[in-house]
Design goal:
Blueprint lengths: L2 H26 L2 E9 L9 E6 L12 H10 L3 E4 L13 H9 L6 E4 L2 H8 L1 H4 L2 H11 L3 E3 L2 E7 L2 E8 L16 H7 L4 H7 L10 E6 L5 H7 L3 E4 L8 E2 L3 E2 L15 E4 L2 E5 L17 E9 L1
Parallel strand pairs: 1-14, 2-3, 3-4, 4-5, 7-8, 8-9, 9-13
Antiparallel strand pairs: 2-14, 6-7, 10-11, 12-13
Helix pairs in contact: 7-9
Length: about 300
């Protein structure tokens, strides 16, 4: 055989092996991604606040009992942990003890606020398949001291300024393959049961001062324009697992709904005075692939300008 062909085949084989090794490495090692977010709405608070954002664990484990992940969370010394959904896997006969045990350990560190993703929503809606599994899961979280937001909000006092955390829960139909359902700011307000007058305070460009800093936990970033138009100061999303494979300069390649090169897939973006953070997630399911896309625990230093 031509020696140049042999060399070429060896190079291709080396690249394939390197890719396989990197995928394996990224599937088993997470990183802490740190961001600093400043807002004039938070002027006057006594000190910065440390938020941790977790999403898309999908029953994954890092160390026995997720102790490696828990130790990283403790070392960050957070003031508040926000959970963006898909901590379990919503498949028939799937066991989610790992996710539940992990979540129940978090309130020992600091207050925890949790919203649902499409996997929790699937288990919740499809009682024919899952029975009362979701009810038991939710009760276990609440009994451990976790605040579970299902189209609800909670206020966190910060002296002269407050945080209001909203947990948006969209129906499972919003996650269908190759389809993006319409969503408007008014519909978002409707999910939260806000009146028209209350909605006006949150809508972008409404001209009304709202002193509270609003964080929206909204699992699916496909509807980011509606979230921002609604008036969230910070949107925290996940769902896309970083787009499976990330290309420098382009970001993630594909969404779970089958759309290519999403605008938001695993980064921080400033949209005027509003902040968008999309987590690459902590786990995977079904397609266990990550390339140039390590799992992440997001740490946010939040303070005034």
């Amino acid at each position: 055989m031509n020696p140049f062909i042999i060399i070429g085949l060896l190079i291709v084989l080396a690249i394939i092996l390197a890719v396989i090794f990197e995928i394996h490495r990224e599937l088993h090692h997470f990183q802490v991604t740190s961001y600093s977010v400043r807002s004039k709405k938070l002027r006057g608070i006594s000190r910065d606040m440390k938020l941790l954002f977790l999403s898309d664990l999908h029953n994954w484990t890092y160390g026995q009992g997720n102790e490696t992940l828990l130790e990283s969370i403790r070392s960050e010394e957070p003031d508040l942990i926000l959970v963006g959904g898909d901590m379990l896997v919503g498949k028939e006969k799937a066991v989610f003890d790992n996710a539940l045990d992990f979540l129940r350990a978090l309130p020992e560190i600091c207050p925890v606020i949790c919203a649902n993703g499409n996997h929790e929503q699937r288990v919740k809606e499809d009682t024919k398949t899952y029975g009362d599994v979701y009810a038991g899961y939710k009760k276990a979280l609440k009994d451990s001291g976790i605040h579970v937001l299902e189209n609800e909000s909670i206020r966190v006092e910060l002296g002269s300024r407050d945080l209001v955390i909203y947990g948006l829960e969209l129906p499972s139909a919003s996650y269908k393959k190759f389809k993006k359902s319409p969503l408007t700011p008014r519909e978002i307000s409707g999910y939260f049961g806000l009146t028209e007058e209350e909605s006006g305070k949150y809508r972008a460009g409404a001209g009304k001062e709202e002193k509270s800093y609003k964080i929206l936990l909204a699992h699916n970033p496909a509807y980011m324009e509606a979230y921002l138009d609604w008036g969230a100061d910070m949107v925290l999303s996940g769902h896309l697992h970083g787009g499976l494979i990330r290309v420098p300069g382009l970001g993630g390649i594909v969404t779970p709904q089958g759309f290519l090169f999403p605008k938001y897939s695993g980064e921080i973006t400033q949209e005027g005075e509003r902040t968008v953070i999309v987590s690459r997630g902590l786990g995977t399911h079904t397609l266990n692939i990550r390339l140039f896309n390590p799992p992440e625990l997001i740490s946010i230093q939040l303070g005034g300008e």
